[in-house]
Amino acid sequence: MSTTIELTDGGAPVSAVPAEGGEIRCGDLVRIFATDGVEVQALQGLTLSVDPGEIVAVVGASGSGKSTLLTILSGLDTPTGGSAVVAGTDLLTMGHAERVRYQRSTVGFVWQQTSRNLLPYLTASENVRLPLELASRGSSLSRRDRARRVEALLELLEVGHVAGRRPGEMSGGEQQRTAIAVAVANSPRVLLADEPTGELDEATSVEVLEALRGVNRETGVTTLIVTHDPTVSEHVARTIQIRDGRTSTETLRRTETDEHGEARHVSEEFAVVDRVGRLQLPQDFVHALDLRDRVRLALEPDHVGVWPAAPQSLVEPVETGPGTDELGRRKTEEDR
Ligand SMILES: Nc1ncnc2c1ncn2[C@@H]1O[C@H](COP(=O)(O)OP(=O)(O)OP(=O)(O)O)[C@@H](O)[C@H]1O
Fold it and tell me: Whose CA is nearest to atom 12 of ligand 1?
């Protein structure tokens, strides 16, 4: 079967609730900002599912909607449409009290600006202790247990040596690793990191990404890292690419052992197909074949072929009439 499709999709978003059981589930998430009468669609039907305990990176160019997504997942902004459920909390319908509880104990955050993560007049220990004390009314942790937990978290993040220092007396990497300890102090179910390495050099970025991976492994906290840095995919098993406010491709990374017993990393890229069959072709594929406006498709037994559409003059006129459907295909007995 062969047909031609428009590359631009002007269709209205169709509800797509992602698989049950995901710790983070977004279905056809839409966020429209209206300023001075101009509308910007920052998210245009984004679908995303992250399993409990998974560590996933969301990567995209500037303006692709990464921060908008994270601001919604952190409960600081409400989407215009679609669905977003994190650790069982429906982010579209939660009330004020639930929002406070959600931000205080369900999710932990690490932001790009180190100054947003840590209070400058408190030491590393005091910064980590603060969320524990704020939550202590409903918690069974004694004062001594809280002190032990602070120490254990700083050790886990390998920043025990800066316990008594204020942020201004630490390196950027030490500040971000302390910020991760603060974010997971109350054992949140989900850890959200927005460009956590944005202000760091390459070597320090690697340390911070490995620290996030270590915390994910040790505590099982579901972790979502949003960044423009494509090298993040070397530190996580799954990288989701977003383009124009939608998930476009996913890169899965796994370790294989070859016939000589040597471990090697294998990455595979997949296009994301939503519930109604929409997918985005990778940008380099589009450029390589100069695909624009519309493409020709063919359904083969085990794959779908995509070709640049031939100029109109070369396209054979389709047969239409009572014996054919709207695409010129011959009607079957069932159609009739
Ligand atoms: N409050 C707002 N009002 C109007 N438009 C906004 C607002 N916030 C974001 N946008 C627009 O939405 C789109 C997505 O922005 P967003 O900040 O989510 O992208 P991003 O991928 O995080 O980019 P960057 O990596 O540069 O931070 C952009 O076109 C941006 O200009």
Answer: 42
- pLDDT per residue over 246-289, tens digit each? 887 788 887 888 888 887 777 777 877 777 777 778 778 888 88
Query: What are the residues facing 269 on neighbouring strands?
Result: 251
Categorise residue 45: left if φ over 0, alpha if ψ from -120 to 50, beta otherwise. left
pTM: 0.79
Same domain flag for 148 and 285: no
Ligand 1 mutation target, pool 29, 64, 111, most atoms within 8 A of CB: 64
Residue 295 shares a structural domain with residue 235 = no
Domain containing 241 — which CATH number? 3.40.50.300
Predicted pLDDT of residue 261? 83
63 lines ligand 1 (CB under 6 A): yes
35 Cα–ligand 1 center, Å: 12
Q: What is the total count of domains within the chain? A: 2
What is the distance in A from the centroid of ligand 1 to the CA of 43? 9
Q: How far is CA 28 from CA 141, 144, 182, in A?
A: 40, 46, 32
Expressed as residue numbers, the domain containing 85 is 17-271
Mean pLDDT of the chain: 83
